[in-house]
Amino acid sequence: MTEQEFYYTIEKDAVAEFKDRGSKFIGYACPIKSVEEFKDRLNEIKKEHPKATHHCFAYRLGLDGNVFRVSDDGEPSGSAGRPILGQIDSKGLVNTLVVVVRYFGGTLLGVPGLINAYRSTAALALQMTPLAQKQVEKEYVVQFDYTQVGEIMAVVKQYNCRVLRQEMQLFCNMTIAIPKNRVMETVYKLQEIRNVELRAVAG
Hints:
By secondary structure, the protein is an alpha+beta fold. The chain folds into two domains: 6-133, Impact, N-terminal domain (Ribosomal Protein S5, domain 2); 136-200, Alpha-Beta Plaits (2-Layer Sandwich). It contains five helices and eleven strands. β4 (54-61) and β5 form a beta hairpin. The two termini are 20 Å apart. The model has no long low-confidence stretch (mean pLDDT 94).
């Protein structure tokens, strides 16, 4: 299997509503980059809806999509979190969280009804936000003399790298993200510049 050069995610929050036999479902689709960010978002949504009966969710994190979690939050097992995750996966998204808040309307929907409601709400929320194709990048720290900044920036621009952080003093430190498919040529070009030190950032 070739290593992927791109991944898909969402860039903006989105909200959608779905109603079924009196129950109201509100879906939130949010871009997240870490488990901490997920916790913050979930807490914000819970604060917004303190009287909701359930706050069910699913997320998938990381470029390989290996980090994921689902929660039925008191609904019958498999009736909420899994259907939500199914919608994230059907679009091939990572770094994406969907929370579905439910206000119970007095009529039991049964497991098939719940699966449909949570799946539909998640799908609606994800339809409300544009999907973004992002390049898989590798981070490097470049150390160089201040007089070389022009040369360094020329390489950074040529290979579509992004500058993440920089400290510009007499000796400069710059963290750059290099598109995965351009790493070899970019590193080669930077190492051609005299006295430049380069190291890959783990992860």
